[in-house]
Inverse folding.
């Protein structure tokens, strides 16, 4: 890509959109992520990755990491991480009337009603072999005629204990009919809704943008780095994690084993401007279509953020700052959770309707994230010594310059105590 090209300002090519659709559509509920990692991503990486790259595999889960410089522990290690696991519903019990009662996990009960789903069931006679049941819908109340007035009028909601899967079972011995299918407690259920182009230009909607999008971005950054000839000083770990949706238990394992110097979590964010009913919370005005987001706060490294923001400005890539408080809420926390010394942050893209069947995003934001991460890796690779850059250049607020009411520094207070010699990056991009 030349310096004059700006892919993030153009429509996403249909071949790239199709890859994004296939990644998001892979059936990868929590604990069963291999459909995405091995079924879609591994063949894609094999199509462009140099032979020298190494695939790290793990025993306890289906996470994967593609390593650009295996064994080169002296290099500066940067981990880019998305998570393959999807929130899911699970079979809780089977009623005598054939209803399959389910847990709703991280879904609001009311967003599930009426939607088609896929149930994945392990064959009781052949453990390890899975079957798929399609055609069922999630229900709770049946017809409006059976609801009390408060529910009809919207004054009363739906409890998670009311949610069940309707497989249209009828006839005699309804419970036994379901049992004969091999349906058992704990079976995973996910939405049956691939992404589609939206009505407005460059938009798309469907299920599981969270977080197939982070995996898609990670894979596309890897492709661009490979096509550009790779890196010399930076060893990149392109990671696809598991267990994020149940507590971020997967990425901390990857960090603990591979000990990166930098971790950048890639995950969806919220479009707070479009979010209904939260105006009084005074949230930051993140908005779909306005660029990628960068986390500020929690454990986010100001040094790392400075490099990302400078890179975005140099290349005209639109960016939005996101305040995250005490926790990024993403795999960007993997380093501290694994007790690894690393600089970390989180990159995202504002979406609407998170954890519903109609999550909505903008391809410009996704492309912006892909290209700012690619350029950031190249900027880190261009540093004289990336290790020393992060060791020696922590922000010094004791050297901050006072401002007048007009916003200009007071000349007589410019003379601060002599600072140590700046690195070349600091000279080019002063904090």
């Amino acid at each position: 890509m030349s310096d004059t090209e700006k892919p993030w300002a153009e429509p996403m090519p249909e071949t790239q959109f199709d890859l994004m659709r296939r990644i998001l559509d892979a059936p990868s509920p929590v604990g069963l992520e291999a459909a995405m990692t091995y079924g879609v991503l591994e063949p894609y990486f094999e199509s462009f990755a140099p032979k020298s790259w190494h695939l790290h595999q793990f025993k306890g889960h289906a996470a994967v990491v593609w390593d650009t410089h295996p064994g080169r522990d002296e290099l500066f290690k940067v981990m880019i991480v998305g998570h393959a696991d999807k929130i899911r519903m699970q079979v809780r019990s089977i009623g005598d009337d054939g209803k399959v009662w389910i847990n709703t996990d991280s879904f609001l009960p009311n967003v599930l009603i009426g939607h088609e789903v896929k149930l994945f069931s392990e064959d009781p006679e052949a453990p390890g072999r899975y079957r798929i049941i399609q055609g069922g819908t999630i229900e709770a109340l049946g017809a409006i005629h059976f609801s009390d007035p408060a529910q009809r009028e919207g004054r009363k909601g739906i409890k998670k204990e009311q949610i069940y899967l309707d497989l249209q079972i009828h006839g005699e011995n309804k419970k036994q009919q379901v049992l004969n299918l091999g349906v058992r407690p704990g079976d995973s259920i996910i939405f049956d809704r691939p992404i589609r182009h939206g009505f407005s230009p460059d938009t798309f909607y469907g299920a599981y943008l969270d977080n197939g999008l982070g995996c898609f971005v990670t894979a596309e950054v890897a492709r661009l780095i490979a096509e550009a000839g790779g890196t010399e000083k930076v060893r990149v770990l392109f990671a696809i994690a598991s267990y994020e949706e149940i507590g971020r238990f997967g990425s901390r394992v990857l960090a603990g084993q591979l000990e990166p110097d930098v971790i950048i979590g890639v995950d969806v964010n919220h479009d707070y401007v479009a979010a209904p009913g939260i105006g009084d919370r005074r949230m930051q005005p993140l908005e779909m279509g306005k660029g990628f987001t960068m986390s500020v706060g929690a454990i986010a490294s100001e040094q790392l953020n400075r490099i990302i923001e400078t890179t975005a400005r140099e290349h005209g890539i639109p960016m939005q700052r996101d305040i995250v408080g005490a926790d990024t809420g993403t795999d960007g926390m993997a380093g501290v959770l694994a007790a690894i010394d690393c600089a970390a942050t989180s990159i995202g893209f504002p979406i609407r309707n998170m954890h519903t069947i109609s999550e909505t995003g903008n391809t410009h934001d996704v492309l912006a994230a892909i290209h700012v991460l690619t350029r950031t890796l190249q900027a880190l690779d261009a540093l004289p010594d990336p290790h020393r850059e992060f060791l020696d250049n922590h922000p010094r607020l004791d050297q901050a310059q006072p401002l007048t009411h007009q916003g200009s520094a007071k000349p007589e207070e410019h003379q601060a105590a002599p600072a140590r010699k700046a690195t070349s990056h600091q000279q080019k991009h002063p904090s």
About this structure: The chain is about 25% helix and 25% strand. The two ends are 28 Å apart (CA to CA). The domain at 7-86+208-388 is CATH 3.40.630.10 (Aminopeptidase).
